[in-house]
Amino acid sequence: MGNMCSNNGDQDGNGSNSESSPCCRGRQRKSRKSSKAHSGDDEIKQEPPIIGNGSNKSESAANVSQQQRQRPQFDSREESSMASVDSEGMASATTHHKQLTVSTSNTSAVQQQKPSPSSSKVAGSHPNQQALAALAGSPTSTTNGANCDPDVVRQLPEVIRHVLHGCVGTGSGYGTTERGAHLTVYVTSADPTASSTTALLDAINSSGVHAEIKALATSRGASLQILCDPWGPSSPAAAMTTTTLMSSSSDDRIGRISLSNLNRLMETSNVIPVLVFGDTLGRTCLPLSIEAQDFQTALHQAPDAEDRNLVEQWYHSDQLAQPPCYRLQSSPTMSEDVQQRLLEFFITVFSQELSDAYLNTLFEQEVHNSVCMSQELARRCIWIQETTISSPNTSGSVHSESSITERENRRRVNAVQKILKTLLQEKHVIKSQAEPFSAVTGQLSATLHSIVEEVLDEAEAKDVLSRSSLSKSFLEEINQHLAFCQRAASCSVNRESALMVVKRYLTGNEQHPLIIYGAEGSGKTCLLARAAQQCHSWQQLDPECTLEMGVVLRFIRLTPESSSVLTILHSITKQVSLLTTGRLPRNPHTLSDYQSTLHRLLGDERSLRKRITFIIDGVDHLEDFDTVFDLLSSWLSVQLPPTIKVLLTMRNGQQLEKLRTQLPESAFYQLEELSSSEAHNLFDACLLQHTHRSHSDHLTAMAAQINQSHRPLTVKILSWQAGLAEEFRGNICGEILPCSTNVIPNLTAAVLELTGRNQVAMMIALLTSSRYGICDYEMEQLCRLHLCESDNSSWPTLAHLLVPFLQRVVVGGLGLLSWRDATLREQMTNTFLVDRNEAVVVHRKMLDYFWAIWQESRALLESRNWADLASPSSAITNLRLTRRALDEIPYHLSLLDFSETQVRWIQIWSDPGWLLTKLATSGVTQVMEDFALTPESCRPEHFKQWMTLLAPAIDYDYRQVASQLIGRGAPQTGIFEKLCRNPLVACLLPSHDLAPSDCSEKDICISAIYRLNSGEKHHAAALSAVRDELSLWNFKTGQCDKVLGNLQNQPLKVAPLANDRCVVLCGRELCVYDMNTGEEVLKLKGMMNQKLPLFGLHGDSHVVSLSRNRMYVNLISLENGDCVTTFKVGEDRFLNSLLVSDNGRLLVCGDESKRPCSLLVWDLQAKKLIYDLKMNHHEFITRLSAITGDGTYVACVCKELETSDPNFIVVYDLQSGTLFKKWKAGANTVAVSIACQNSCVVTSLQDARILVWDLVTGNCRWSLLGHSASVDTLNLDAEGSYLLSWDSEDNDRSLRLWNLSNGQDVATFTPDQRTTAAHVSADGQIVLVALAGRSDLVQLKLSHTPLS
C-alpha cells in the first residue's frame, strides 16, 4: 500500500520526485539537469510548495532513509496534507526544477527540452487500467465492458463515460481547474527600483490597459487580474511593518513566496507573462545550499583566509543530506556588505557552470519557471525591452557593485536575452523608449488583446465536458468529486486493515450499508477516497464478478450540489438514472419523489446488469440531516439489492446512534486512531513538505504533543507549526509552537502570531464568511476596497502560509478557495467572526461587493436585451462572475438583520431577470436553496409548490420556465406574471393550459402529423389510427378546423393534392378524399405491402407506390385509380424504401436483396431506370435516406460490411449518377433530413448530436448540442431554415427548435407526456404537438419579443 500511495502521489504532483526545491538557489548540474517531466503537451508538472530553507529532493529522501522511517502519505480534506491542495494549484512550485541555463553554450539545450517517456504524465492516465479497459470494451477486460450501458452512455466520449462511471483519475484532468475562466497578466521586472522601470510600471497601471483587457475578459465570462511586480523591493507586499512574518521576510523568503505565487497562478489561471528588463537581471541571491564537493572546491580556491572564514561562518555542513551539502544560515543580522562579499567570493571561485547552477536572481527563476518550462507560456509571453541604461547600483547595496559583479551581470543578461529571442514571438517583443510611455502602453494593450482572445478560444476548444449530450454543470459536479478523491487517495496514511474491511464489503454478499465512523480528523475521508480509487480494480480481480461497476461518489459539502439532502439526491438520482436507463429522471424536486425514483431505478431489471456502489463521505455534515433522518434511515434500512453497495462515513455523535437503531451491528466499523509510531512517521513526512530537515529541539519540544496526537489532522498541524518555527527562528516575536495538546486552536494562534491580526484578519474573515469559497480575483478586489495600500497585497503570502488547510474547488467554472473541512471553518469562524458586530461588518462588505457586481451585470444584460441568456452554453460560460454574485447575495442577506435586508429580498423575488439568470447559471436546485434562506414574509406566493413541480423541465432547459408556467396553469401573480408576460428569452409558449385529458397517458390518440402546403391556409393533417379519423388543424390559430371521420381502416399517412384533396393510406389501401366534404372520392386499385406501405406523388395526377410483394413499383392514375405503369427491377430483388422528389421527377428505391445493396433511380417522366448505384463492400441503410425537392441529390446512410465502424452518410448527384459527398461523423446516424432551399443535409446521431452538412462545400456547418439522447425525428420548415427535433421513443422527452442559419438552439419545450407526433409550420414559428393521452394538438408559438 505504501508503494501504491507513493506512486499516486507522483502522478498528482504530490510525491517528492522533485529535482530541487523551488526556493533552492543551488541548481543541479549534469545528470540532474536531464530530469524533466511534462504535464500535458508542453507544461512542466507542478510540485507542492515548500516552506523552509530549501534543498533538492534527493536530500529529503536521504533524510528519511537515514532515519530508517517509511514516508507515509497524508490524509486529505479531513486529514489532508499540504499536497492535497497543491495538486489543484495552491501555491505550488515547479517539479523537476531545471533552472535557467544562462551560458550561451547551453542555449540549444533549453530550446530542445523533451519530456522523458518515463517521467512524462499522459493526460487522463489512470492507475486502474483494467477497470478502464472494461469501460472501453477492451478485449483484455474480464467483463462485458460498456456493452451493457444504455445507448446514450455508450456513445459518449470515453473520458466523459469514465466520469459518469466514477472512475477516479480519468476525467479529473478535464474541466477541474477551469483555467479558461481565469486570466493573469503577470508583469515582472528585473530591476523594479530603477526610475525608468518604476515609471513604466506606473504608466501600465495608470493607463487604460487594465480596464480594456478586463472588459474583454468579462464579456467572455472570464476573470482577469494584472499583477505589476507585486514582490519588488518597493512594493507594498515587501515593505510592511516589522512585527510579523510578512515584514520580517528576507529576500530569500520573498523570493520563495513570489515563486510559490507564480506557480499557483500557472496552475489555476492562464498566465500571460510580461517581462520588463534591459541591461540587468536584478539582485543575485546567495545560494541556500551548496553540495559539499562544490563547496570544498570553492574553499580551496579561495586566495584569502578571511574570505574562507567568512564563508564558513555563514555556511554550515548538513551531513544528513545525500549528497552532503552546506546550508546558508538564516539570520536577520546579515548586512548588505557581508552579502556582497559572499556573492563576489562565489563569482570569483565558481566556474561558469557552477555560477549558472548556484547564482541566479529572482527574475531569472521567474522566467525559467514560466517561459522556459512551458511552450504555451512562451507563445503568449510579452517582453518589454528597456533601452535606457539603469543605474549601476541596482542591488540596493550600500556601495556600488564591483566590476566582477558587473561583468557577471552582463554575461547573464546576454544569455537570457538570447534565449528569449529564440523562444518568444517577434511580434511580442516591445521596444521601450524614454518617457512618455504612451507608445509602449498602446502596443502592450493591442498585443494583450490578441493574446487574451487567443487564450480564451483555446480554452473553449479544450473544454471536453461541454462537448457531450449531458449537461456540463452535471458532469463538472461529478468531476469535482473525482478530482478531490484522486488528491485525497494520494495523500493517505496506510490503513491496511480498514481498507481490507471495505474491500471485503464491496466484493462480498452483504446486503446492508457499511458505515465507517470515527472522530474528526481520523482519516475517514482518505480511506473512502482510497476505496473509491481501487474499487474498479477490486471488481476486475474478482473472478466471480461479471458485472460492470458504476461508482456514485460524493463528498458532502465539497460543492454546492452536495450541501443538502435535496441537492445531493438530485445529482445522485440523475447519475443513477443515466447509468441504468440512459434517461434523465423526471420526478419533482421533493425528498419523497427522489426516494421513490431511486427505489424504482435500483429495482429495475436494467440495474441488475451493473454493480452500483454509493460512496458518500460525511453524511452527518448535511445541513438538513436531522430533519430528514427518518426518510434516509428508512431507505438505508431496507435490504439492498444484491448488486447495490452503500458505503458511508460519519462522525461520532447523535446521528450515528440513531442509525445504530436501524441497522445491524455488522454495518458499522470504527476507524482506529494512529499509534505513536504512525504519528511520528506522519509528522516526519509532513515536516519534509515544509522544511527539508527537522530541528532536534523542535522534535523534543513537540514530542509530547506528537505522542498524544492520534489523528492525522492534529499531526499535520503540529508539523506545519514546527516547519514555520524552524524557518522563522529568531525573526519573529513570540512563539508559534503549541503550548497545549488541543492542537486545532493553536493553528489560529500561530496564524495570528505569524501574520498580525490587523493585516490578515479581514482576509481570513472574508474567506470564512463566503458561502462556497472565494477566488483570487475576488479577494484582490475586496482587499483593494477594504484594506489600506500597505496591506492589500498580502493575500498571496497568506495563501502561501495556509496552503495545507485550504482546498480549491470549481463552482460555475471558477476555482474557489475555501477551508478544507468543516472543523477548520468552524475554528476560523469562532476566531475571526465570533463577535457579532464584526461578523455583520464582514457580511455587509461581502454583500455590497457582490450586489454591485449583480447590478452592473443586470444593467449589461438588459442593455443587450438579455441575449446572453438565449443559449444555455453561452450563459454558463459568459456569466461565471455573475453567478458568483447570485450565489453569495442570498447567503449574506440571510445572515444580516431583516430590517436592513428586507428591501433587497423583495427586489430579488420580484425581479424576473434575477430568477432567469439564477436558473441559467446555478440551476433550479440552487434557486430552491436560496428560497429556503428567504424570510417567510418575502417569499413569493406559490413559488415553492410550482418550482418543485416544474424542476425536471427547468433543470433540463431554464429558458422554458414561462412555457411551463403557462402549460401547467400556474397562477399568474407576482414574479410568475412578469415572467409569463415578458419571458426575456425566446421560448415556445403553449396557447392554453395543458390540463390532463380523460385518456390514459399510454393511449396514442394521434399517431402522425403532416404539414399541408396549401397556400395561406397553414393547415396540418393529424391522423388518429385508433379513431379512424383525419383532422385538419390550423397552425396559426391552433384550432381544429375539420374532422374527416369514419375513414376505412387505420389512417397511417397523408399526401396533399390540389383542389383540397388528399391521398390517405388507410391500412393497406390508398384512398383519395375531399377535405372540404370529408367524402371518399376514389379508391386506388391494388394492395400495399403490410410492413412497408410506401408511396409518393408524381405531381397531382399519379401516385407511385411499392407493390405488395416489394418486387416492383406501381404508377397509379388519380383519375380512375388504375395502374398505368409498373417499374420492375428483376427477379428475386426486393425493395425496402421509396422516395419521390417533390417535383415528381425522380424515384429512388432501395434494393436489399443483393450485396452490395443498391439505390435504384428512375426517371418518372421517361419511365425508365437511369441509375443503379452501389458501393462495393458496403450496404445502404435505405430507411435512413432523403431526397431534395428538385431531385438533384439523394442522401443515404451507408455501412461498411467488413468492419464494426459507425455508419456514415453518402450523397449522390442524381444528375450524373456519381458519388458527390461522403461524411463520417464518428457515430451511427439514426435520422436524416435534407433541405434543397438551404442546401444542407441534417443528420441525427446516436450520441445525441445533430449535424448540419453543407451540400455545396461538403463541410459540417453546425454541430447542434442540447438533446440528452439521440432523436429519431427531424422536421424542417418549408425553407429549411428551422429544424424541429424530437424523439418518438421518449428517451429525451423534449422538443427543440433550431435556427439552421446560425446554428443556434432557439427554444425548448418539455411536455409532461410522451410526444407521439409533431411538426413545424412552414415559417418555423409554430409547432403542433400530439401527446400521449391527449386527443387534441398542443400549439407552441415561438415568442421572440415580450408579449402584449
UniProtKB/TrEMBL annotation:
Pfam families in UniProt: NACHT (PF05729)
SMART domains: WD40 (SM00320)
Comp. bias intervals (Low complexity): 1-21, 108-123
Protein's name in the database: NACHT domain-containing protein
Signal peptide start-end: none
Region ranges (Disordered): 1-128
NACHT domain span: 512-657
